[in-house]
Amino acid sequence: MLTCQKLLNKHTELWQKATIHPFLGQCKLGTIQPIQFNTWLVQDYLFVVEFTRLVARILNAAPVQHFDSILGGLNALKDELNWFRDKAAERNLDLSTIKQSTCQEYCNFLLEITEMSYPVQAVGLWAIELAYNQGWQLPGPMPEPYAEFANRWGNVAFTEYVRILEKQADSALETASETVEQQAESVFIQIAQLENSFWQMAFTGGQ
Length: 207
Ligand SMILES: Cc1ncc(C[n+]2csc(CCO)c2C)c(N)n1
Prior knowledge:
Elements: H1 4-10, H2 12-19, H3 22-29, H4 34-61, H5 67-90, H6 101-114, H7 118-137, H8 146-154, H9 156-173, H10 178-203
Helix pairs in contact: 2-10, 4-5, 4-6, 4-10, 6-10, 7-8, 7-9, 7-10
Bound molecules: the ligand Cc1ncc(C[n+]2csc(CCO)c2C)c(N)n1.
């Protein structure tokens, strides 16, 4: 039987590339350039808008036992989108801009996930949230203004939320066919690659 932990164990190197990147390393060092950070901020807002639509569609496919966490996630997204708008305003950033190709590619992929079965969607949701939970946590405490961002996704409550998503994905996988297992693995791999590309996009963003 496939589990989330098995995916992490099998694709360690790929997952490291998704969660450990010079962008985050330079946030930790305080040496990230504003143009890089701002590129990430704007593009991530555009991503989170599409991610919100994904979560809404996952709710539609989920068993009622999984509603609590998904509805909680949607409620958190309401705050998150407003928070992104506040952060952008503080930095005088225009959020009504076009998506860079990597961001567009990731958003297109989110749409593809919505056409797959619930176990695959549950694995995708977990992996996307885990990528940020680990990515912002692994470097350790960051200096301001990055501490606020690191704490937002590295905090204990968010880690706990991601654990619940993992349990739900595992329980959905229990009855999954081999074909669905393969789809889930493929989605996990693509998310890891897209997460790495997203950091890379922001890192080279201003150039
Ligand atoms: C490229 C990219 N990948 C993953 C996330 C993670 N994420 C998406 S929405 C959200 C809010 C809480 O559910 C979080 C943490 C992201 N923001 N950007």
